Amino acid sequence: MIRITRTITIDESEIQEYFVGVSGPGGQNVNKAATAVQLRFDVANSGSRPEEVRTRLISLAGNRITEDGILIIDARRFRP
Which of 34, 49, 76, 77 has the most CB atoms at less than 10 Å from its CB? Predict the structure, then answer.
C-alpha cells in the first residue's frame, strides 16, 4: 500500500509503470535507453476511492488525466 494521507492509500496493483525512451539531445544512445518512467492510475474505475476523492483528483489533475479518467504522470531525466 502507498500511503497518500492518514486516511487515503492506494494499492500498488492499481498503478502501472512503463519505461519509455525520450527524444532530445543525448548522442548515440538516445534511442537505445529508456530514460523516462510513466505512471498510470485509473482514477475513474478505482473502487477503493470514495467518490469525493475521485472527483477532487480529476479536477486537480488538469491535462494529466485522459478522457477515460486515467491519471498519467511522466518522470523524465533531462540531459545537460
Answer: 49
Q: Which domain holds residue 67?
A: 2-76
Instruction: Tell me how far apart the alpha carbons of residues 70 and 62 are, in angstroms, rounded to a whole number.
Output: 11
In the block, cell 492506494 appears at: 10
Query: Which runs of E-coded beta strand occur in the chain?
Result: 2-3, 9-10, 15-20, 36-42, 70-76
CATH number at residue 60: 3.30.160.20
Q: What is the residue-averaged pLDDT of the chain?
A: 80
Cell 533531462 appears where? 78
What 3-state DSSP class applies to 20?
Answer: strand
pLDDT at 16: 93
